[in-house]
Amino acid sequence: MTSRRQFLGAAAGGSVLAAHSNAFAAATSRSQDIEARIARRELKDLTKEDLPTPCMVVDLETFEKNLKTMSNQCRKTGVKLRGHVKVHKSTDIAKRQLALGSIGVTCATVAECELMAHSGIPGVLLTRQPTSKNNIERTIALAKHEPTFATVVDDPLVADWLQQAAAREGIKLRTAVDVYAGLTRHGVESGQAALDLAKEVDSSKNLKLIGLMGYSGTASHTHGWEERKKKSQDDLSGLMESVELAKKAGLPVEIVTGGSTATYNIDSESKGLTELQAGSFVFMDTLYRRIGGRSDANVYSDFGPALTVMTTVISKRHPNQCTIDAGNKALLKPTDQVKDRPEVKVENQGAEYGILVWKDGDRDYKLGERVELYPTNLDMSTNVYDRYYIARGEQIVDVWPIMGRAGAAQR
């Protein structure tokens, strides 16, 4: 038999459980409502406080300024932009660059090319020669789908494979010769070897030679503008020699492509390249910011930091430090920087945990407070998130999907 005390206790417990259940249901309903509004693009009154963390937030004003700075430089110098998508993996961003005069995009993977081309982006250039049966077949399919699509080769054998595959489908594949420019990961030797490969491509019935490519990756993170200028010019000297040889041989050189965010105002003003493959300028990361610029030896400030990873303070049990909900899985790095708090040190403490440490006891963080971090490496960080939340101040004004690992069966 149930006593009155037991009955009242059970009733009270039921009330508590009901209250918790109602609160959980309300929170779940709120979260589902936000997702539904995002899907419908109904973002009125949606702010950063409504977002899950960790998440990626783009400051729209800084982002748009970065795009215009690059566009103005290209317009002034006459060099075109074929921006690299590995940094952002977003068709929304690619289309905004096209609207400002970009002639297309460059991609490091076939999957990125497929995403861009099938979203209506013209002028897609695959900067890594396809060698597997899978990638060759997909490359040929891209050329059939989009006539402005192009790829590169740095080996006569690959040129032969592409010729055979293109012949089977009865298409003409636009192809550039990839020339060594300081990175040992790819590129045919400059000079006679590059010329011979260019001649082979040009003489192939189903390949169309469009020019040459050379990427000076070592120059892109050379500290100091003058040092970087010299490094870029040295690395690209073999490419320029190869271009002159190709022109003297009467070969078509429609494009000479390369360059990076760090060398945009070096390569564009030297007039050697006809187009730039710069990509990181759209967001900027902490590694790029510290290489120094033309006007500031300490900070590369031509482009502003537009992208942050927003986190939440989830624990605070020790003086002058707090725990955030971003760790290894969020690609947290000790070289990340805290927005508006440059004195705060970032530490990693596991898969889902990060630590912020500071010395100034008067500037504390509170539980539940949102903290935004500038990421160290854009390519890696972008790769683990599904969307960008676009912010004007605290207001979320748009949401752009990111090509995720599930975006294609194969990279």
Query: Which stretches are low in confidence, meaning pLDDT under 50 for 5 or more residues running?
Result: none
The count of DSSP E runs of length 2 or more, i.e. the number of strands, is 17
Which CATH architecture of the largest domain?
Answer: Alpha-Beta Barrel
What is the assigned CATH homologous superfamily of the largest domain? Alanine racemase
Give the proportion of residues in helices: 25-40%
**Which whole number gives the mean pLDDT?**
92
Query: Based on CA inertia axes, which overall geometry fits?
Result: globular
Q: CATH class of the largest domain, anyone?
A: Alpha Beta
Question: Over the alpha carbons, how many angstroms does the gyration radius reach?
Answer: 26 Å
Structural class: alpha/beta
